[in-house]
Write a structure and sequence with these properties.
By secondary structure, this protein is mainly alpha-helical. Helices cover about 70% and strands about 0% of the residues. It has one domain. The protein contains ten helices and no strands. Helix 2 packs antiparallel against helix 3 and helix 2 packs across helix 4. The chain starts with a helix and ends with a helix. The relative contact order is 0.13.
Length: about 200
């Protein structure tokens, strides 16, 4: 499978350069590729087998992207999952809800990777590596002290650095949401459904 994430420029809603449809489609396809791989992996498929089957369904996903109006992409994703499931061996259970969960995880993971790349280019790879576990949770006072010692930063400086990283992550996620929902209302719906999917996935034993 092509390593698309390494070939694509990170998304950014702050960019003044006009977005190009072909680039948007490339980003969508890369996210779908990752989603299928995670979907199969979560269902227990071996890595080699999952990669082979993901490559096999790439033409179908590309055709679906080309035929589906951007505003309908996320709403029709369960039907895409059903179509993909019919093309794959039935040796392991695959569900549309698990596909949406995999999509949510991959969308956030790619946004985190883009923030990491941005930090690395700015010479702050070490700071990002230390603060990455706290992008979604607050560090305890003990954690904050340990981070300050490791990075030689004050509590105030750490708080500012973490706030900036979280803001950049939100921007990256928002940029990704724009690819799948073109209006504020549909993005709110998408955001809520993704959050619910992540919560359901975390609570599933």
């Amino acid at each position: 499978m092509p390593n698309r994430p390494a070939d694509l420029q990170p998304l950014s809603i702050a960019s003044k350069r006009p977005r190009r449809p072909e680039e948007d489609q490339a980003h969508r396809m890369a996210l779908l590729d990752g989603t299928v791989l995670r979907w199969l992996h979560d269902a227990g498929w071996p890595q080699a087998s999952a990669s082979a089957h993901a490559r096999a369904v790439e033409p179908m996903m590309s055709q679906w992207l080309g035929e589906t109006h951007p505003e309908q992409l996320f709403n029709l994703m369960p039907s895409l999952a059903d179509r993909l499931g019919k093309q794959l061996p039935q040796s392991r259970p695959l569900s549309a809800s698990a596909f949406i969960s995999a999509f949510a995880h991959c969308l956030i993971a790619r946004a985190v990777d883009e923030v990491a790349l941005e930090a690395r280019r700015a010479g702050h790879a070490g700071v990002f590596a230390c603060l990455r576990p706290y992008l979604h949770i607050e560090p305890t006072p003990t954690n904050l002290t340990a981070l300050g010692v490791a990075l030689e930063l004050s509590d105030a400086a750490l708080t500012i650095a973490l706030s900036r990283l979280r803001r950049r992550l939100r921007e990256r996620i928002e940029a990704a949401l724009h690819l799948w929902a073109s209006t504020p209302e549909t993005r709110n719906t998408l955001r809520r459904q993704l959050r619910e999917s992540l919560i359901d996935a975390e609570s599933t034993p």
